[in-house]
Amino acid sequence: MNRIAFGFVAAVVLPVMAGAQVTAKRVHLEGQWEAKASDGLHYVMVRSDSSAQFGEQVARWRLVGDSIWFTLGDGAWQVYGLQVAGDRLTLSGGDLDKPVSLRKVGPPTPRPTGLVVPDAPPDTARAWD
Q1: Distances in Å between the alpha carbon of 9 and those of 2, 55, 122?
Q2: CA–CA gap between residue 36 and residue 119 (Å, rounded)
Q3: pTM given for the model
């Protein structure tokens, strides 16, 4: 999956916040998220162990201020702006041409045995600033 597709999938993934925007309070992203695209629905599973899964792709995620960071283990973080309103999550910036909205559709499932989560690169290893 190329970076643009990953950016879209990441954007199609992660919403479960309780407030209108991400603030200093604990934000819970865990759950199954759905995004609608021209080619159909895309689903992302976000787990509390900092893993996210979409199809065969597995990423590590982290919240930093009002941003969410993803890595596929390629040594760089993909960084997106994050806004939450109800059960909707909107990701913007990074490699996205326009903001992407996701909707929480269910709880997280346990991580399958043997599924390897990528190591986290250093905070300074971002794909762009």
Answers
A1: 10, 10, 23
A2: 29
A3: 0.74
